[in-house]
């Protein structure tokens, strides 16, 4: 490993940033590698922990490193690419990338009244009743997203009785309940992780998250369910292919 040499000119934390980045790019530290603990690395480099943290934060912001609470700082694996050209489930996305998808069911609440936003999104009346499902989605046991799904109880009766740990919701809706999912209306935004969300997703509190709302429709353009999903920005890149309008 190339030793760190402090220069007389230039901001110190940016010099450290460049040194770490160089070791990532030349694959001295390969994806998934855990960096030495901050006290050890700062001592080895002859710098303060505050200076090291500034450098690490720059690299985290660029998606080259990520932190896991209680574990340390790691070199980022290639971010998962989410293509917004074809509607696919989380399970389908991860399997296509050779990863093993799984879920942790955090909450299931039946018989909920829809608020005005959900009434509009799902075309419901105030008398309708919803099932709420909250799951932490993982790939190779690494948290990738936090999802909250709302679905009218009459659409998929007894859905909450199914094992949603290993089963895809898309698969259940389409194959068990025989309701084809034909399209989705997706909107994207940005938000900050709450303390609880940060703990679940293994990121720092107030980290930036990508926030997606997806309304899924059947073949009659009737809303089936809506998914609210939050993704750590350093683990995903969203891509869109758009033809230019003709004429």
TrEMBL record:
**Signal peptide from the UniProt entry:** none
Boundaries of every HTH gntR-type domain copy? 10-78
Q: Which InterPro entries match?
A: Bact_HTH_transcr_reg, Chorismate_lyase_/UTRA_dom_sf, Tscrpt_reg_HTH_GntR, UTRA, WH-like_DNA-bd_sf, WH_DNA-bd_sf
Q: Name one GO molecular function term.
A: DNA-binding transcription factor activity
Tell me which Gene Ontology terms the entry assigns under biological process. negative regulation of DNA-templated transcription
Give the record's keywords alphabetically. DNA-binding, Transcription, Transcription regulation
Read off the CDD domains from this record: WHTH_GntR
**SUPFAM superfamilies the UniProt entry points to:** Chorismate lyase-like (SSF64288), Winged helix' DNA-binding domain (SSF46785)
At the top level, the lineage of the source is Bacteria
Question: Entry's PANTHER family?
Answer: MANNOSYL-D-GLYCERATE TRANSPORT/METABOLISM SYSTEM REPRESSOR MNGR-RELATED, MANNOSYL-D-GLYCERATE TRANSPORT_METABOLISM SYSTEM REPRESSOR MNGR-RELATED
Name it: GntR family transcriptional regulator
UniProt source species: Kroppenstedtia pulmonis
Its taxonomic path starts at: Bacteria, Bacillati, Bacillota, Bacilli, Bacillales
């Amino acid at each position: 490993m190339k030793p760190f040499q402090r220069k007389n000119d230039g901001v110190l934390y940016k010099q450290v940033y460049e040194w770490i980045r160089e070791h990532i790019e030349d694959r001295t530290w390969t994806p998934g590698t855990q960096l030495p603990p901050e006290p050890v690395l700062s001592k080895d480099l002859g710098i303060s922990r505050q200076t090291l943290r500034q450098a690490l934060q720059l690299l985290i912001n660029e998606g080259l490193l990520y932190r896991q609470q209680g574990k340390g700082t790691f070199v980022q694996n290639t971010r998962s690419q989410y293509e917004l050209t074809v509607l696919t489930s989380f399970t389908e996305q991860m399997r296509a990338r050779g990863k093993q998808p799984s879920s942790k069911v955090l909450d299931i609440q039946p018989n909920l009244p829809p608020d005005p936003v959900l009434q509009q999104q799902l075309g419901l009346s105030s008398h309708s009743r919803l099932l709420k499902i909250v799951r932490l989605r993982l790939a190779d046991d690494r948290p990738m997203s936090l999802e909250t799904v709302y679905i009218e109880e009459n659409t998929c009766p007894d859905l909450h009785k199914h094992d949603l740990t290993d089963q895809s919701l898309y698969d259940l809706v389409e194959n068990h309940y025989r309701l084809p999912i034909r399209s989705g209306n997706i909107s994207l935004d940005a938000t900050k992780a709450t303390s609880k969300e940060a703990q679940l997703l293994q990121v720092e509190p107030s980290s930036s998250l990508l926030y997606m709302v997806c309304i899924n429709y059947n073949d009659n353009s009737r809303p089936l369910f809506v998914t609210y999903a939050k993704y750590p920005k350093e683990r995903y890149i969203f891509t869109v292919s758009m033809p230019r309008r003709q004429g």
